[in-house]
Amino acid sequence: MMPPVEKTERDLLGELVHSPHPVWRVILAAMREGLLIVDQDLTVLVQNPAAEQIFPPPPISSRPLRLIDLTRDPALHEGFQCALDHGTSVELRFELKRGDPRAFHVTITPLRFAAEEPQAALGVFVEITALERLERVRRDFFANLSHELRTPLATILAYVETLQETDWNDPEHVRRCLDGLFRQAQRLHALVRDITDLAEIESGAIALSLEDIPLRAFVEDVLALMETQAEERGIALINDVPEDVRVLADPLRLTQILQNLLDNAVKFNRPGGQVWVTARALGERILISVKDTGIGIPPADQSRIFERFYRSEKSRSRETGGSGLGLAIVKHLVQLHGGEITVTSTPGCGSEFTVSLKAAVSR
What we know:
CATH class of the largest domain: Alpha Beta
Number of domains: 3
Low-confidence stretches: 314-320
CATH architecture of the largest domain: 2-Layer Sandwich
Shape: elongated
Radius of gyration: 31 Å
Number of strands: 12
CATH topology of the largest domain: Heat Shock Protein 90
Distance between the termini: 93 Å
């Protein structure tokens, strides 16, 4: 009997790579992470389906596929070469700029098969695009939050210092300081309330209590809440909702939606302007619109105005106050109702926000 032939490391690697066993192929196909194995010549030995989504193979050629055929990114080539030359693992960030940018955390590990020198290198690509986006949102949120807190707190401290040095026999000056303190305390209270509301909405802690609401009468009540603010700027509030329109919504949350939209329509309007609330049926939906004759929103900002703390007219927004969270809250509340909100706007002419909600079932 012939003695068994001792297999070389490359033979073992070849058997692993080209094994016909279905389990090996199933595992590779099921992996969400991209996986690449290259040999010492940077020839591609294994590329699973997830890796093919990252690096689509070029048209079929007569020669073996090499790493350079998939990507010319110098950091990736250096990472694989380092793992092969020095036998050490390498971690790096790789950004795919084709189409929508995607980011990956890449771990490149040398593969040894009973030998001291690496016979191949394994690269695992874990997508971190969503994680990086969330991290940016988190950083922006806290940066904006600190700014929003800093402004009223600085004003409060200034008023307190003024009161400490004030002659209390001057009641008019004391009253002005106390009024200023009250306004800034209200601003902080509104900010904390909006942050709490947004956190509860996003966490799913809010449950809706849906009711059949006659919309015209409901809008009239909400407009009454806005009368003082509108009168201060000479803004006319107009209820154009037909009498027969009924909507299925949570009364408290619908009030919140309309108040936020009307608050913006008044604050960013021109003196003596107008705000209309209208509604119409579209199939099984009711489209509620809040339209104003205000400053409008630049086209570049219209896709971002529902982001937390995003401000289109930053200088004007600072003057008018507000938490910067109103439209984000509106969007989440509308979505919680199973609806959508859209905006159309022309700078200098005004804006129109349209909310789509379910129509109440006719009795």
